[in-house]
Amino acid sequence: MRPPPSDVAFSPSVKAVQTRLGSRPAYARMESGAGWQTRVTPELADFIGAQTSLFLATASAAGQPYIQHRGGPPGFLQVLDDRTLAFADFAGNRQYISLGNLAENPRAQLFLMDYAQRQRIKIWGQARVIEDDPALLARFTVPGYKARAERVIQMDVAAWDANCPQHIPQRLEAADVAAALTERDRRIRNLEAELDRLRTAGDRAGRP
Q1: What is the 3-state secondary structure (H, E, C) of the chain?
Q2: Confidence band for 153, pLDDT divided at 50, 70 and 90
Q3: What's the predicted TM-score (pTM) here?
Q4: Range of the domain at 202
Q5: Do 156 and 86 share a domain, yes or no?
Q6: Are residues 78 and 56 in the same domain?
């Protein structure tokens, strides 16, 4: 029998802890049903396309973990097909820890957080660094963006899961707040202009 996709995270040790703390029956039912998904759905693709930030988790061959933040304009993380994601690796601080880890251990995870909508997505898979594909790199080049894409990191999706919004603080993007404030100020100006027009019309109507 093929193991459930969630086994990418639920190791025997994890399942033992779930059993001890009482959550294993619920997750066993999940595994016997639809379980975690292994393909990118249209809904997940929409979520991915809107992201401007992600966390990439890798580990060395010795198991030393490392989490790196990567960001860019919407679309820097793309769906290549329903089993493959990729993102532009823009020039950074040149430590290359993630690249070194992937060179000896391809297992990786992406953690996507949308604070405004209080949503989070975890994606497990195997990743590789692509530096010799000009056509693919061109696909991730963003005209006018201040950073240069040096390479592409491509990930084959093994499984993904969406968490509940519990304990996620709601935070808004500065650009979204600025747009909302601009729209508020525009409406205030329009309302003030309409109020002035009504006052002027009332004054004229009250004249003998």
Answers
A1: CCCCHHHHCCCHHHHHHHHHHCCHHHHHHHHHCCCCECCCCHHHHHHHHCCCEEEEEEECCCCCEEEEEEECCCCCEEEEECCEEEEEEECCCCCCHHHHHHHHCCEEEEEEEECCCCEEEEEEEEEEEECCCHHHHHHCCCCCCCCCEEEEEEEEEEEEEEECCCCCCCCCCHHHHHHHHHHHHHHHHHHHHHHHHHHHHHHHHHCC
A2: very high
A3: 0.81
A4: 172-208
A5: yes
A6: yes
